[in-house]
Amino acid sequence: MSDATAGGPGGAAASEDGYPAPAVAWAMVAVLFIAYIFSFIDRMIIGLLVEPLKADLDLTDTQVSLLQGFAFAIFYTVMGLPLGRLIDRSTRLPIVAAGVALWSVMTASCGLAVHYWQLFLARMGVGVGEATLSPAAYSIISDSFPQKRLGLAMGVYGLGSAVGAGLAFLIGAVVIEMVANAGSISLPLFGELSAWQATFIIVGMPGLLIAGLFIILPEPPRHGVAAGTVREAVPMREVMSFIRKRAGAVLGLCFAVGMVNFAVFAAVSWFPVFLIRVHGMDLASAGHLAGGALIIGGLIGLVGGGWATDRFGGGTAAGRLAFCGFAGLAGTVFAVIFPLAGSPALSAIAFVVFFSAAAVPIGAAASALQQLTPNRMRATLSAIYLFVVNLIGLGAGPTATALVGDTFFPFDDGVRYAIAIVSPIGFAIATGLFFLSAGYARREVNV
C-alpha cells in the first residue's frame, strides 16, 4: 500500500486504498488493451504477406525475416531504454499517445514502399512508436491495481498481443480476399494499390483514433512516490545497482521471457507460410486458421494464466515464475508436435496448446517484474526487460527459422523442420531459466 502518491486527475476517482476506483482502473486497461491489439496487428501483419512481398519485391525468406524481426526490433529495443527513463519521470499518457500515432503512420507508410529499403525504414519507424507502449502500460497498470489483482490485469493487457496477432492474420485474409474478388483496390488519397499495400494502409490508419483516447484518460497517481518528486529521475547507477543485487531473479526473468519470445516468433512469424507450403492452404484460409488459433491460445494462456498465477504460490513473484516454468514444459513438447502433425486441423490444435503455454509469461512474468521493482524504476526496468526480450525474440526468432530452413531444408515444406528444431530449443532454455529465476526470487524474499 502506498504511503504517498503523486497527484493527478485520477486522484478524484481513487478508492480507499489509494488505487483508482475499479471502473477507472479497468477502463485504463481496456484502452491499453486496444492499443496493444493495434500494435500487434501492425507488427505481425507482415507475417501473412510473405508470399506477395517475395513475389513483388523479389525477396528471399531471410530478407523477409529481417523485415519481420530485425528492422522492427532494432529501434523498438534501443529506443525503449531512453523512453523508459522518460516515462519514469513524466506524465505517461501523452507519451503513449504520441507513440501510437507514430507507429500507425509508419505502418501505413509500409504500404507506400516500392523498394526493399523503403519498407525496411518504415518498419524501423513502427518499432520506434511501439517502444512507448509497454513500459508505460506496465507502470500505469501497477499503479492502478493492488498486487493481489495485478496478474489478471496484466494478463488482460497482454492478451492484446495474441488478439492483435490473430486479427492481423484475419484482417489480412479479408483484405486479400477483397482484392482477389475485385481484381484491385483503390483507397482515397492513395489510389490503386496491390493487396499487400492496401493491407498495410488499412490496418495502420485506425490507430490514430486510438491515440486520441490517451489524451482524455486520467493519469493514475504513482504509488510509493512522494508528491512533487516524480520528475526527479532515479540515477541510472541506482538502477544498475538494483539489477546487480537481484541479477538472479531479474535478469533470469528477462532472459527466460526472451527465449520464450524467440520460440514464439520463430513459429508464429512463419505459421501462415507453414500452412500454405506444408498443408496446401490458400493464403486467405491460412490467415483465418492462424488468426483463430492465436486468439484462442492467447485467451487460454493470458486470461487463464493471469488468473492462475494470482493464486499459484500466493501470487508472489517466485510463484508466478515457477508457474511459467511448468507452462514452458508443455510449450517445449507442443513446439515439436504442431509443425510435424499430419493435417492442418491437428497442427492448429497443437499450435493452440503451444501458444497458450507461450502466452502465460506475457502477463505473469511482467507482473513478477513489477513486484520485484521499486515504483520509480518500473518503466526503466520494463524497458530493459523489453530490450532483452525483443532483441532475443523478435530480433532473432524469425531469422533463425529462415536461416535454418534456407540452409538445411531448402524446399517448400522445409519450414516445418526448421520450426520443429528452432522453437523447441528456445522453449527448453526458457523453462530452465524460469525455474532458476523463481529460486532466486524465493531466496530474496526469505533473506
UniProtKB/TrEMBL annotation:
Domain of life: Bacteria
Membrane spanning residue stretches: 23-46, 66-83, 95-114, 120-140, 152-176, 196-217, 250-276, 288-309, 321-342, 348-369, 381-405, 417-441
GO molecular function: transmembrane transporter activity
Gene3D superfamilies listed in its UniProt record: MFS general substrate transporter like domains
Location(s), subcellular: Membrane
Cellular component GO terms held in the UniProt record: membrane
Membrane topology qualifier: Multi-pass membrane protein
The protein, known as: MFS transporter
Organism whose genome encodes this protein: Maricaulis virginensis
